[in-house]
Design a protein that fits this description.
Layout: H1 3-25, H2 33-50
Helix pairs in contact: 1-2
Length: 51
C-alpha cells in the first residue's frame, strides 16, 4: 500500500477508536475488547508506515 492510503486508513482507524472509547465510556457499548482491537489496528498501520 502507498503511504497516502495508509494515512487515510490511519485516520479512519483513529476515528473508529475514538468512537468506541466514547461509546464504552457513556455505557452504550458493552464489548470492551473492541477498544483493544481498535488500538491494535492503529498500531499495525503505524508500524507499516514507519517501516
Amino acid at each position: 500500500m502507498t503511504k497516502v492510503n495508509l494515512e487515510k486508513d490511519l485516520s479512519s482507524a483513529r476515528h473508529a477508536l475514538a468512537s468506541v472509547r466514547l461509546a464504552s465510556r457513556i455505557g452504550q457499548h458493552k464489548n470492551t475488547s473492541d477498544v483493544k482491537k481498535a488500538r491494535k489496528a492503529v498500531a499495525r498501520i503505524l508500524t507499516e508506515i514507519n517501516s
